[in-house]
C-alpha cells in the first residue's frame, strides 16, 4: 500500500465520509460515520474514534469540509462572501492542532441570492473546487451547477468564479412530507423515489403548469390516491417528482440568463439523486452532465491538502 | 331555555365542535372534542360520550359534516361532483339510526381542479351552504371563497353553484415545517403566526418575487437567522408569511378570471387565520370580506336540519 499521507473528510449534518489518502490524493481506505447532527456533544471525540483504525500511520493531517465547520460542528469557520474563486477556500480555511494532528476545516460560502435573501453553503464549495480540478474546462465561461441534497444548491460560475447561488429545501421538504404529512402513508409506500413512470408523470405535470405553485400541486398526492389515480405505493415517487420538478422549474426561471450562456447544467451528487435531477432537467430541455459527489468532494479536499502542505502536483 | 331540537356537529380530522340547537338553529350549548383523527377506533363511541350531558333531552337527531364522513370517520359518505349547488348537499347526505338517534352526515364535494388534479373537500361545502344562508347575496354572480385551514380551499361559485375549487396544503405545510424542519427552532420560537411586522415582511417578499418558488424562498427562514436578519423568535412568523403569501399568490393567478368577475374574496375561517389571509390578500390588492367559520358551519348544519326534518323557516 502506498504511504498514507492525510485524511480527507466530508462531514455533513447527516453523514460523514472519511478517506485515508496518499500524497497524490488516491484513496487507500474509506469509512462512513454519523453526521455532526448526530454527535452534537463531542465532534472531536467522534472524529478521533472514527480514525482510531488509522492510528498506526501516525498523527496524519486531516482536511475536512461541510457542516463540521458550522456552529453545530467542531469549530466554526466563517463564510467567504461571493463572488469567490474556489482557490480562495484554502486561504479561508481554519487550521488548528488536536491530539497532535493538524486539522483543517474549509470555510463555507455566502451570497445574496437572486431572491435578495442571504444564502449559505458548507461543503459544496469544496465539491466545486474538486469538480474544477477534475474537469478544468469547467473553469471557463459560464457554468451552472446543480448540487442536490437536503438543501439543494444551484450555483452560477463565470470563468471559475462562483458568482451567486440559490438554495432549495427540496431534500428536507421531501423527507418531512414523506414522514409527517397525510400525503404519503409512509408505512405502506416504498421510499426511495425510484424515478420510474410515476415520477415522470409528476415531472410532466409540472411542465404542463409552469404557473402552478407547489403548495397547490402537492394535494394531488393524496387526492390522486383517494380517486384511484395514484397507487399508494407510488405516492412517494409522485411526491418526489413534484418537488424535484418544481425545484428545476423555478431554478430554470431564476437562472434563465445564466443558462442561456452555459451548455446546460452540471449535476454534482450521489448517483441516485443525480439521475432524478438529470431526468427532471432533460424533461425541461436542459442538457445535463453528471459528476459524482463523493469524487468531487475528495478531489476538492485533496486540492486543499496539496495547497496547504505545499505539495506540488508533480509529487 | 328553548327546547333543544337537534345536535349540530362539525367534525374534522383534528377538532370536533358540537352544538345543541333549538328548532330555529339557535345554539343553546356548545362542546369541543377530539377530531376523528384522534378517535380512530370508535367514532360512534366518541360521539355518544360527547353528547352524554345532553341525554336528558332525549334521542335528538344529529347533523354532522366534515371528515366524520370519510374513510377515517364514522361512515363513509360519497363526494358530490362539481358543479354542485349547496342545496344538493341534503339530498346527498347519509342518514342512519344509532342508539335511537337519527344521524345525518353531509357528503363532501369533488372536482377536477384548475391543475387538472382530482380535488376533494369535506366540511367546507356545509360552510358554503351556511355562508349563502347568512348572506343570500353571495348566491348571486361570481364569488371566490378562501377557506383557510390544514388544507385551505379556494372555491369559485357562480350564481350559487360551486363550479370548482383548489386545495392548498398551507396549514399542514406550516405545521410540519414548524415542528420538523431546520428552518425553525420550535423550542425557541413563538408559534402562532401573530401577523405582525415580520409576517408582513414575508408577504412583501412574495409580492416582490411573483416568479419565486416556495421551495427557493423557504431557506431564508434559516439563512436570515444565521445572518442576523431574522430573530429566532420571529422565524415562525416569517415562515407563516411565506406560505400564506405564496398560497395567495398562486391562487390569485389560477383564479384570475374568477377574481376579475367578483368583488374580491370571501374568507371563511377562524378569526385568527382569517385575519392573516385578509392581510395577505390586501397586500396583493384583493378586497376581502371575512365570515366566521364556526358561524358558517352552524348555519349550514341548521339549514340541512331544516330541509331534512321538513322544518319551515317560519317555525
Write the layout of secondary structure elements.
The structure is a homodimer of 315-residue chains.
Chain A (H helix, E strand, L loop, with lengths): L3 E8 L3 E8 L4 E8 L8 H8 L11 E4 L13 E3 L6 H5 L1 E5 L2 E5 L2 E5 L5 E4 L2 H11 L7 E6 L4 E7 L2 E8 L1 H11 L16 H12 L5 H4 L2 H7 L8 H20 L1 H6 L3 E5 L1 H13 L4 E5 H17 L6
Parallel strand pairs in A: 1-4, 4-7, 5-8, 10-13, 13-14
Antiparallel strand pairs in A: 1-2, 2-3, 6-7, 8-9, 10-11, 11-12
Helix pairs in contact in A: 3-11, 4-8, 5-8, 8-10
Concise synopsis of the structure shown:
Chain A has helices at 43-50, 88-92, 124-134, 170-180, 197-208, 214-217, 220-226, 235-254, 256-261, 271-283, 293-309, and strands at residues 4-11, 15-22, 27-34, 62-65, 79-81, 94-98, 101-105, 108-112, 118-121, 142-147, 152-158, 161-168, 265-269, 288-292. With 315 residues, the first copy, chain A, is of the alpha/beta class.
Structure description:
The structure is a homodimer of 315-residue chains. In chain A, strands 3-2-1-4-7-6 form a 6-stranded mixed sheet, with helices on one face. In chain A, strands 12-11-10-13-14 form a 5-stranded mixed sheet, with helices on both faces. In chain A, helix 10 (271-283) links the parallel strand 13 (265-269) and strand 14 (288-292). Chain A is globular, with a radius of gyration of 20 Å. Chain A starts with a strand and ends in a 6-residue tail after the last helix. Chain A has helices at 43-50, 88-92, 124-134, 170-180, 197-208, 214-217, 220-226, 235-254, 256-261, 271-283, 293-309, and strands at residues 4-11, 15-22, 27-34, 62-65, 79-81, 94-98, 101-105, 108-112, 118-121, 142-147, 152-158, 161-168, 265-269, 288-292. The longest helix of chain A has 20 residues, at 235-254. Chain A folds into 2 domains: 4-138 and 294-309, Nucleotidyltransferase, domain 5 (2-Layer Sandwich); 167-292, Nucleotidyltransferase, domain 5. The mean pLDDT of chain A is 94. Chain A has 315 residues and is of the alpha/beta class. At the A-B interface, strand 9, strand 12, helix 4, helix 6 and helix 7 of A face strand 9, strand 12, helix 4, helix 6 and helix 7 of B.
Amino acid at each position: 500500500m502506498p504511504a498514507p499521507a492525510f485524511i480527507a473528510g466530508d462531514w455533513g449534518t447527516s453523514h460523514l465520509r472519511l478517506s485515508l489518502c496518499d500524497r497524490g490524493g488516491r484513496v487507500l481506505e474509506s469509512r462512513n460515520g454519523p453526521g455532526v447532527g448526530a454527535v452534537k456533544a463531542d465532534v472531536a471525540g467522534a472524529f478521533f474514534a472514527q480514525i482510531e483504525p488509522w492510528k498506526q500511520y501516525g498523527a496524519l493531517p486531516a482536511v475536512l469540509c461541510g457542516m463540521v465547520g458550522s456552529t453545530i460542528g467542531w469549530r466554526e469557520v466563517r463564510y467567504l462572501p461571493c463572488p469567490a474563486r474556489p482557490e480562495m477556500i484554502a486561504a479561508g480555511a481554519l487550521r488548528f492542532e488536536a491530539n497532535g494532528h493538524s486539522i483543517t476545516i474549509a470555510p463555507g460560502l455566502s451570497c445574496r441570492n437572486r431572491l435578495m435573501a442571504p444564502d449559505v453553503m458548507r461543503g459544496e464549495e469544496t465539491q466545486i473546487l474538486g469538480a474544477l480540478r477534475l474537469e478544468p474546462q469547467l473553469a471557463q465561461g459560464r457554468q451552472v451547477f446543480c448540487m442536490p441534497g437536503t438543501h439543494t444548491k444551484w450555483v452560477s460560475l463565470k470563468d471559475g468564479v462562483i458568482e451567486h447561488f440559490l438554495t432549495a429545501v427540496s431534500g428536507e421538504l421531501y423527507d418531512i412530507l414523506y414522514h409527517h404529512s397525510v400525503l404519503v402513508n409512509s408505512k405502506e409506500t416504498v421510499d426511495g423515489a425510484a424515478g420510474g413512470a410515476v415520477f415522470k408523470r409528476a415531472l410532466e405535470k409540472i411542465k404542463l403548469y409552469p404557473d402552478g405553485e407547489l403548495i397547490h400541486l402537492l394535494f394531488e398526492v393524496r387526492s390522486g390516491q383517494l380517486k384511484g389515480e395514484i397507487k399508494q405505493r407510488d405516492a412517494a415517487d409522485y411526491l418526489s417528482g413534484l418537488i424535484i420538478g418544481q425545484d428545476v422549474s423555478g431554478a430554470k426561471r431564476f437562472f434563465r440568463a445564466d443558462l442561456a450562456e452555459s451548455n446546460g447544467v452540471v449535476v454534482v451528487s450521489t448517483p441516485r439523486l443525480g439521475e432524478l435531477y438529470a431526468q427532471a432537467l432533460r424533461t425541461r430541455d436542459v442538457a445535463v452532465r453528471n459528476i459524482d459527489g463523493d469524487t468531487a468532494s475528495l478531489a476538492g479536499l485533496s486540492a486543499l491538502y496539496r495547497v496547504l502542505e505545499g505539495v506540488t502536483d508533480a509529487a
